Amino acid sequence: MNDLIVLINSLNRDEVAAFIAFAKAKNQRTDVKNIKLFQFLQQGARRDLDIKIYGKPNKNALHALKHRLKENLVDFTASRAFSGESQEDMQLFKEVLAARIFLEQEQFSLGFKTLIKATQRAKSLELYAILQEIYHTHMQYAHLDPKTTLEEIIGAYQENERHYLQESRMVMGYATVQEALKSHPPNVYQVIKNQLDVFEISIDHHLSFKSLYQLMNLACEAATLKSDYAGVSILMNHIYNLVENKKHLADKHLFYHLEILYLMAGTCFRNKDFTRSQELVEELQLEMQKQKGSFKKQFLERQHLLNAWNHNYTGAPEKALEEIQRIKSPSLSTQLAEITFYFQQEDFSSARKHMKKWQHSDQFYEKKEGMLWVVQKNILEILIYIEVQQPDLVETRIKSFKKRFNKRLVELKEHRVIAFMKLLEVYYSAPQHVVEDHFHKKVERAFEWKTAAREDIFVMSFYAYLKAKMERKSIYQATLELVNPGCMEHL
Fold first, then answer.
1. Cβ partners under 8 Å of residue 340, min gap 6
2. What pLDDT, in 10s, does the model give residues 125-170?
3. Buried b or exposed e, range 346-373, using 16+ CB within 10 angstroms
4. Distance of CA 310 to the CA centre of its chain
5. Residue 8: closest CA among 63, 70, 52
6. CA 106, 109, 112, 113 torsion-angle sign
7. What SS3 class is residue 232?
8. DSSP secondary structure, 83-151, as one string
9. pLDDT at 171 > cutoff 50
10. Alpha helices in 27-58 (DSSP H)
11. Residue 282, SS3 per DSSP
C-alpha cells in the first residue's frame, strides 16, 4: 500500500490526467474500478476502500485491485520514460537495429551510412553502452566497408571500451562506498579515495552526468559526516567545472543536472558562499521548468529549503520562514530548519510547539534521517527546554543524550559536539558565570578551532548560542556575526 501511495504522490497534474487516459485505454471492459481506486487514494482516502468501490466488504478483491493498479502505474512510468527522456537512446537503438537488417540484406551502403550516423550521435551524447553495440556490428561487417579499415574500428572500439569500463567501475565504486558509509567510518575521505583507487576511477570529462553526480553525492555525504564542507570544496568545484564543460548535454541528462545543481548550491551554502549558492538555486529553479516540469515535484521542496537557508543567514529571517511555509507536507529536514529559525528568533514557544509534533523515538528518526540529524534535533530540543525553563526535562535530555550518543561521537571523532554539551551543562548549572573571563577561557580551550572560512555553518550556529549568552546578545545577532559578519551592517 505504501509503495502504491508513493507512486501516486509522485505524479504531477499532467501525469495524473495522462495516467487516467492510459488506464482507460488498457481496460478491456467497462470496469473502471482501478481508476476509482486511483482517484480515492489520490484524494487521501484510506479507509473502507472496498466498501466504497464494491458496495460491500471485499478485502481480497481490493488487494487484487491494488496490485493491478500498482502494475499499471509501473507500466505507465516506464512508458513515459521511453517516450520522454530516453527518446534519443531509443532512436539510436532503432538505427542500430535498422543498420543490422540492411547489412544482413546486403544493402551495405545504406547499412554503413546508418551505422556512421548512429556512431556520431552516440558519441556526442556520450552513450558508451550503445557505442559498444555499434562497434560490435561494424566489426562484424568491416571486411565489406570500403571507407573504414578494421584497425580504425578496433581502435575506436578500444577507446570507447575504456570509457564504458570506467562508467561500470564508477557504479561499483559508488555502491561500495555507500555500503562503507553505513558504519560511519572515522576517515570517510580515505574510504572514498581507497575505492576510487581500487576501481581505477579517474575524475575527468569522460565521466557521464550520472557518474559526476555520484561522485558529488559521495563527497557531500562525507562532508556531512565530518561537518567539513570546506574539505571537499576543491573536489566539488573540479566536478562542477567538468559539468559546465558538458552543459550542451544537460537537457539530455536533466535529472542528474538538477541533482548536481542542488548539491553544488548546498555545498556553497554550507561554506557560507551565499551569493553563489543563491545563483545556483535560481538556475535550479529555471532548469526545473524544463521537460514540462517533469522533475519539479522532486526538487521543489529542496529549492525552497535552500532559498530559506540563504535568506536566514543573510539577514532576512522573515523571508526564510515565508519560504519554508510555502512547502506542503514538509520533510523532517525542513521541519527541523523551521524550528531552528524560530529558535534563532527567540520565538521559543513556536519552536517548542513544532518540536512536540514529533512523537516517535530517536531510533525511528535515525532510521529515516541518520544519526547526525537526530543529534542536531536533540541538541536543539535541549536548548529549547533551557530557554522555556524546564529544568527536569533539560537534565533528563542531557543524561539521555550522553548515554545514547557520546560513545558514537567519540568513534566519529566528533569531539566538538561532546565539548559543546559539556559547556552547555556548565552554563545551565551556573548561568551567571557565562559572562566571566574564566568561562570564556574554558570555551577557548574546549574546541579545536578552525578558521571562520573553513568552519561549517551549522557547527557555528550551535556555538552562536553560547556566544550570545557570553556577550549578552540575541541568538540571531550572534549567529550572523559568526557566519556572515558583513550582514550586520545591513540590519
1. 380, 461
2. 888 999 999 999 999 999 999 999 999 999 999 999 998 998 888 8
3. eebeebbebbeebeeebeebbeebebbb
4. 18
5. 70
6. negative
7. helix
8. HTTTHHHHHHHHHHHHHHHHHHTT-HHHHHHHHHHHHHHHHHTT-HHHHHHHHHHHHHTGGG-TTS-HH
9. yes
10. 33-42, 49-54
11. helix
- As a whole number of angstroms, the distance between CA 409 and CA 372 comes to 9
- The answer to whether 202 touches 246, Cβ cutoff 8 Å, is no
Cα separation, 461 vs 479, whole angstroms: 6
Tell me how far apart the alpha carbons of residues 258 and 260 are, in angstroms, rounded to a whole number.
Answer: 5
Q: Specify the residue for cell string 545591513.
A: 490
What's the pTM value of the predicted model, to 2 decimals?
0.79
Instruction: Name which of 238, 287, 245, 301 is nearest 264 in CA terms.
Output: 238
Inter-CA distances, 358 with 323, 365, 378, 403, 427, Å: 22, 9, 12, 21, 27
**Amino acid, single-letter form, for residue 433:** H
Specify burial of residue 57 (Cβ count, 10 A radius: 0-12, 13-18, 19+). Answer: exposed
Distance CA 219, CA 162 (A): 24
Taking a C-beta distance cutoff of 8 angstroms, is the pair 98, 114 a contact? yes
Q: Of the candidates 88, 102, 93, which has an alpha carbon nearest to the alpha carbon of residue 134?
A: 93
CB atoms within 10 A of CB 429: 9
| Gap between the Cα atoms of 85 and 82, Å rounded | 7
Give the model's confidence band at 433: pLDDT under 50 very low, under 70 low, under 90 confident, else very high.
confident
| Positive or negative torsion for Cα 218, 411, 331, 463 | negative
Closest-CA residue to 440 (of 417, 471, 410, 462)? 471
Q: How far apart are CA 312 and CA 272, in angstroms?
A: 12
Q: Which residues contact 111 (CB under 8 A, 6 or more apart)?
A: 99, 100, 101, 102, 103, 141
Tell me the per-residue pLDDT of 253-289, one tens digit each, with 9 for 90 and over: 899 999 999 999 999 999 999 999 999 999 999 999 9
Distance CA(180)–CA(192), nearest Å, equals 9
Task: Please list the helix, strand and coil fractions of the chain in percent, rounded to the nearest 5, in that order.
Answer: 75, 0, 25
Rounded distance, CA 296 to CA 292, Å? 9
Is 20:38 a contact under the CB 8 Å cutoff?
Answer: yes
Q: Can you give the length of the chain in residues?
A: 491
Cβ neighbours for 70, distance < 8 A, ≥ 6 positions apart:
3, 4, 7
Strands (E), 357-447: none
